[in-house]
Amino acid sequence: MLFSPYITKPDSVSKIMLQVLFALIPGIAIYVWFYGPAILVSLLLASLTALSTEALMLKLRERPIAPFLKDNSALLTAWLLALSIPPLAPWWLIVVGTMFAIAIAKHLYGGLGSNPFNPAMIGYAVLIISFPSQMTHWLAPGGLGSAGLDFQSQLNYIFRGALPDGLTLDGVTMATPLDTLKTQLHMNGQMKSILEMPIYGRLAGVGSEWVSLGFLLGGIYLYARRIIGWHIPAIFLITLFAISGVFHLMDPARYAGPLFQWFSGASMLGAFFILTDPITSPTTPKGRMIFAFGAAILTFLIRVYGGFPDGVAFATLLMNICVPLIDAWTQPAVFGRKDER
After folding, report:
1. To 5 degrees, how large is the angle CA 43–CA 146–CA 262?
2. Could you give the angle at the alpha carbon of 105 between the alpha carbons of 104 and 106, nearest 5°?
């Protein structure tokens, strides 16, 4: 029989990271179902690159290699980056983005625990700015493209840039639901008619809405296991719902509804897996709420008015800049001392 107080040993970094990786599996499985196994190749390439780069940087910094490789933080960065870029991305694009994320965004600042920016989102930002064309070739979900690719054809394109005879890249890829929406609105399309296009389903894009549901399921698992708190996911999603709802009510012909914003792009991935990074997010509950609120506002503004179809990555990085200030202003006063702020 146990008596209070119940003191438990805190989970190790490797165990926490492993559970986060496990929580990504439902979304990845749905991804494979709708888009084919190309994403698994991206995940494998990113993982191998991340581990190799991590080992190289640790050696150059004269740090022990095995303990840091086993903490699974490099793998998590690799997976989040791979899930943020098109699954048909050429192999070199994945390698470049992952190497930059690990070597520059992580180790240049001192390694795990010292990096001010989310490494995966830094890698994504570098790729979309440097190689915008390659970052827009998203696979069409099954049944929507003019042609499909089997696994061997996907491998041939990833490693050789070759498609089967008679097929063009436009025939097997398409713009994302967010990008399509933005393009159609710029062409003076009306929201109701746009959302009747075959690319859209009940909540958002066909296929992508189910992937988002998979990440939502994984996020609930992380919360149930107390790997993450409620502050960032709840405030981010509530704020995104509220601001998109207000704009939708004011002009439903020009602004998509809240559920569309929730289940499009990287909203769920960002809410539960990216913004909740304990290294690059605030340390206080109040700070996390401010952080999530700002990220949601920026995500919506970038999606609606910015030059990129999705805004989660850049919203995360912009709010990462604010974390020291948020922490400074939300730290509770030291007991016995007057708070002079």
Report:
1. 55
2. 95
Under 8 Å between Cβ of 201 and 30: no
Q: Around 35, how many Cα atoms within 13 Å sit in the side-chain half-sphere?
A: 29
How far apart CA 198 and CA 286 sit, in angstroms, is 42
Burial class for 144, CB neighbours closer than 10 Å (0-12, 13-18, 19+)? middle
3-state secondary structure the chain: CCCCCCCCCCCCHHHHHHHHHHHHHHHHHHHHHHHCCHHHHHHHHHHHHHHHHHHHHHHHCCCCHHHHHCCCHHHHHHHHHHCCCCCCCCHHHHHHHHHHHHHHHHHHHCCCCCCCCCHHHHHHHHHHHHCCCHHHCEECCCCCCCCCCCHHHHHHHHHHCCCCCCCCHHHHEECCHHHHHHHHHHCCCCHHHHCCCCCECCCCECCHHHHHHHHHHHHHHHHHCCCCCCHHHHHHHHHHHHHHHHHHHHCCCCCCCHHHHHCCCCHHHHHHHHCCCCCCCCCCHHHHHHHHHHHHHHHHHHHHHCCCCCCHHHHHHHHHHHHHHHHHHHCCCCCCCCCCC
Task: Report residue 197: phi and psi, to 5°.
Answer: -65, 150
Residue type, 237: L
To the nearest 10°, the Cα dihedral for 172, 173, 174, 179?
170
Are 58 and 106 within 8 A, CB to CB? Answer: no
Looking up tokens 């080992």 gives 55
- At 284-301, the pLDDT tens digits run 999 999 999 999 999 999
pLDDT digits (tens, 9 = 90+) for 179-223: 888 888 888 888 888 888 888 888 888 889 999 999 999 999 999
Which residues does 1 contact at the CB level (< 8 Å), separation at least 6?
A: none
What pTM was estimated for this model as a whole? 0.89
Report the share of the chain in percent with pLDDT over 90.
60
Question: Which residues, including other chains, have CB under 8 Å from residue 110's CB and lie 6 or more apart?
Answer: none
